[in-house]
Amino acid sequence: MHLTLEEKAMLAGDFGPGIKKAVEIVVALGKIYGAQELVPVRSVQVAGVSYKNLGDAGLEFLREWAGQGVQARVPTTLNPAGMDLARWRELGISEEFARQQMAVIEAFEAMGIIPSCSCTPYLTGNLPAFGQHIAWSESSAVSFANSVLGARTNREGGPSALAAAITGRTARYGLHLDENRRATHVIEVRCPVASEADFGALGYLVGRQVKNGVPYFKGLRDREQGTLKALGAAMAASGAVALYHVEGVTPEARAGGVVAAEAEAVVVDSLDEGYTALNSPVDQIDLVSIGCPHASLVEIEEVARWLEGKRVRAKLWITTARETGERAQEKGLVERIEAAGGRVVADTCLVVAPIEELSLRSMATNSAKAAFYAPTHSGLEVRFGRLEQCLEAAVTGRWPG
Ligand code: F3S
After folding, report:
1. What's the 249 CA to ligand 1 centre distance in angstroms?
2. How far apart are CA 208 and CA 218, in angstroms?
3. Among residues 342, 345, 336, which one has the least CA distance to residue 394?
4. For all residues of the chain together, what is the average pLDDT?
5. How far apart are CA 394 and CA 113, in angstroms?
6. Cα 119 to middle of ligand 1, angstroms
7. For a substitution probing ligand 1, which of 140, 318, 319 has the most ligand atoms within 8 Å of its CB?
8. Which residue minimizes the CA distance to atom 5 of ligand 1?
9. Sheet holding 315-320: strands in order across?
10. How far is the CA of 326 from the centre of ligand 1 (A)?
């Protein structure tokens, strides 16, 4: 692998042991994947922030690295933590968990990382431009950045993203190269796909089928940001898909020539199988979760409008980035949602929060990704459907028949 003089000096330890460790990680990955060189990155998104997933060993690892005086060289944002950093008590999070979670955030902050705690960094200022190389490690954000924005990133792990932040570089392989960005599957969609949940069900089915591939969608009509975010998040969950194209919509599809000659044809003529796989037969709903990936202002507004004059019986969480939550507050949306008994929760989500501490058994969501992970990560029985069905369940406490 060709390394610059500066990179060689980093490897030799000239910049200290923390930077040496970081560049060793980046170079080791590059060697595994056959990279010829490293590439400077414009931004980093670090996952692995919740104490629920990190545990004491993860916290110690971060503290040790931070203690070596390393600093992020490029703008670096953080994935959701295990709790709302300001209102954790109101959510029922224990003192012990909160203390350890704050220690994790402090370690990241000591490394110059912005404690944004969101999986939608592109909605709150970390917005890469077309063609820029980045190193992100939140699967839904990776998918959005590659596909909708046309930036270039592999699915980094937490430590490799942190190493990229500290060195300002990643290894040039995988989706940083043109030849790996061509579609491996052409997906012809012959059924109506309208709601965010429909896009999630479609993503779940396609992800399962293409596994690590690059799908190219034909026949998709609704192209709002929210639906593309749901589509990508679901494919990332069920099939580790990091890049997709939508004919006439996403930037590389618009430029043309993006389908590989040997691409496989796939037809989707019904979403039923996706809905069936992501639903359990549970009737009583304890918690309704909206905002996976984190809700945009438009999505929060939709919830506030629907709840007008209603009162929820189940817990209702709309999870979002703190900055988006603050904008919702300024527009009076948080007040309207809280007047109905719901809650706008910042910095966290249902999958990374210690839900097992909250004595909940069932959840309804309009997110295929949340429905995919909640049974295994949070031990919940899940109902998955459209936003209106979920909000109806929040009001009645039961899944609408
Ligand atoms: Fe984001 Fe949590 Fe969903 S990190 S994509 S809200 S599982």
Report:
1. 24
2. 18
3. 342
4. 96
5. 36
6. 6
7. 140
8. 293
9. 343-346, 315-320, 287-295, 362-365, 381-384
10. 19
Instruction: Report the distance separating Cα 27 and Cα 84, nearest Å.
Output: 36
Task: Locate the ligand 1 atom nearest the alpha carbon of residue 352 and give its number.
Answer: 2
For the chain, the maximum distance between any two Cα atoms, rounded to a whole number of angstroms, is: 65
DSSP assignment of 148-173 equals TS--B--B--HHHHHHHHHHTEEE--
Each residue of 258-267: pLDDT tens digit?
Answer: 999 999 999 9
Nearest to 110 by CA among 76, 86, 156: 76
For residue 45, the one-letter residue type is Q
Integer CA distances (angstroms), 103 to 51, 59, 66, 229, 243, in order: 9, 8, 12, 31, 34
Rounded Cα distance between 253 and 328, Å, is: 33
Q: Which of 255, 252, 246 is nearest to 223 (CA)?
A: 246
pLDDT at 222: 64
**What digits encode the pLDDT tens for the residues 339-348?**
999 999 999 9
The answer to whether residue 40 scores a pLDDT higher than 80 is yes
Residue with tokens 């703008």: 75
pLDDT tens profile 88-142: 999 999 999 999 999 999 999 999 999 999 999 999 999 999 999 999 999 999 9
Tell me the β-bridge partners of 133: 152
d(CA 146, CA 284): 39
d(CA 106, ligand 1 centre) in Å = 22
